[in-house]
Specification:
Layout: H1 5-10, H2 29-38, E1 40-45, H3 50-61, E2 65-70, H4 76-88, E3 95-99, H5 103-108, H6 129-134, E4 136-137, E5 140-141, E6 144-145, E7 151-156, H7 157-162, H8 171-184, E8 191-192, H9 197-206, E9 212-215, E10 218-221, H10 226-240, E11 244-245, H11 252-260, E12 265-269, H12 272-279, E13 287-290, E14 308-312, H13 319-330, H14 333-340, H15 348-352, H16 354-357, H17 369-378, H18 390-395, H19 411-428, E15 432-433
Parallel strand pairs: 1-2, 1-3, 8-11, 10-15
Antiparallel strand pairs: 3-14, 4-5, 6-14, 7-12, 7-13, 9-10
Helix pairs in contact: 2-13, 3-14, 9-10, 13-14
């Protein structure tokens, strides 16, 4: 898949809008409320099922606003449809759910509106630092966070207890636990992985790596930094010893392994509990959550894995109305509605609420899981950037880094190949990439 939003966006009139609002105009909260009271029509593209409840309650509060909620596909499927609609100049929604890694691509092409126009900067402090940083591109704010994925270690306590494995607090301990488990039971693995771009970048992020630097159209890609090397050394050692199950995430085999104990841990985002509860019911009561293992003993560094925003399309004929929906969904009543429905919040109010932190999860043996996850959200390493063509970069991960999981390459060589291919593509799209 090739998405060249940058080239398409650069040919447009940067100051054009379709609802008469000049780019420099400041739209006040009163203006937004007036638009909501006056009503109109909005089309929202989102795959997250918790948005359904938000739309229902939004229409109760603002009965003059008609909202058409469309699932145009998950992740890349939606981004392709969105890119095609933007390029064609018709068929795009007013609001779209866009994951953090993909947002810079749509922001730089000016496919989504800069929310500074609507006073979004005043929301600083409303969201966790990691998610708030993720909706920024330069000084622009191109979406409002609706959820987050601070990483943690999900583990099968029953398996750990059976084989006398302590919960690892460092990656060195994690690798040792992987070997101990697989030696004791060759059918069991500490985890599974066949190559996933989001997992790789999240691990490098936690290790302090900054492979991507972005300054407008000037971009650097460097997978030779210390953080990337920490990850590749650790994970390559586990691959070489066959300590990682060659099972693809979200496959039937993966769900089965999580259920029967042959996959004993997940290093994944905070949105995972509801997926385990609904998709791995045989393991109810067996799983627990712990802090992410550290590269240095005593550390607390974490990173994000997943999470998404809601953005207003720049071509929308109702951007003020659309921003009103964003605030409702991301900050106002919608934030609590989605949290109650199982989404992991990006808002500090929900994260710090006693009711949220003290919630006991029956699936996790009564553990107060959110205490662990909320602490992770506060410890996300700062300074991370994604490429302004990350959607494309992730699409070629399997053909570069992915070869290391089949023995056709190594992670170090695969990361170099991913780097080279990303540099080549970026330069072809008009970026200055080195």
């Amino acid at each position: 898949m090739s998405i060249s939003l940058f080239a398409a966006g650069c040919s447009s009139d940067d100051d054009s809008t379709t609802d008469g609002e000049a780019a420099a105009t400041t739209v006040s909260d009163a203006d937004v409320e007036a638009a909501l009271q006056a009503g109109g029509s909005l089309t929202v593209w989102a795959w997250d099922t918790t948005i359904t409840k938000v739309v229902e309650q939004f229409k109760v509060k603002y009965p003059k606003v008609e909202v058409k909620l469309v699932n145009a596909g998950t992740g890349n499927d939606q981004y392709t449809a969105l890119q095609n609609a933007v390029k064609a100049g018709s068929g795009a929604p007013d609001v779209a759910q866009i994951e953090y890694y993909a947002l810079p691509q749509f922001a730089l092409s000016k496919a989504v509106a800069d929310l500074n126009t609507y006073g979004a900067a005043s929301l600083d402090g409303t969201f966790t630092p990691g998610t708030w940083n993720s909706v920024h591109s330069g000084e622009g704010i191109y979406g409002l966070p609706i959820d987050s994925g601070p990483m943690a270690l999900f583990y099968n306590k029953e398996v750990f207890d059976k084989y006398g494995i302590e919960v690892p607090t460092t990656w060195e301990e994690y690798a040792a636990a992987a070997e101990k488990l697989h030696t004791a039971n060759p059918k069991s693995y500490i985890t599974s992985d066949t190559g996933d771009a989001g997992f790789t970048t999240s691990m490098i992020w936690q290790a302090g790596g900054k492979p991507y630097t972005v300054d407008g159209t000037k971009v650097t890609v460097n997978f030779a930094d210390a953080g990337a090397q920490k990850f590749s050394t650790l994970w390559q050692g586990m691959i070489d010893k066959k300590l990682v199950a060659p099972i693809s995430g979200w496959s039937d085999e993966w769900y089965k392994g999580l259920g029967d104990g042959t996959i004993a841990t997940l290093i994944i985002g905070a949105w995972m509990p509801s997926n385990l509860e609904s998709g791995v019911k045989p393991a109810a009561g067996k799983w627990r959550v712990a802090a992410m293992p550290q590269w240095e003993a005593g550390g607390k560094a974490t990173s994000e894995n997943g999470g998404s925003s809601l953005a207003v399309l720049d071509g929308s004929a109702a951007k003020t109305l659309a921003y009103g929906f964003l605030k409702y969904a991301a900050v106002q009543d919608g934030a609590q509605l989605r949290t109650d429905a199982g989404a992991f919040p990006a808002t500090t109010a929900q994260l710090n609420a006693d009711a949220f932190k003290s919630k006991e999860f029956e699936y996790f043996g009564g553990q107060k899981v959110n205490e662990v996850l909320a602490e992770s959200a506060a410890e996300v390493v700062t300074g991370w950037s994604y490429l302004p063509f990350q959607v494309y970069a992730n699409s070629i991960y399997v053909d570069t880094v992915g070869k290391a999981y089949t023995g056709a390459s190594t992670l170090t060589d695969g990361l170099k190949a991913w780097q080279d291919a990303s540099v080549k593509y970026g330069n072809e799209q008009g970026f200055e990439v080195s």
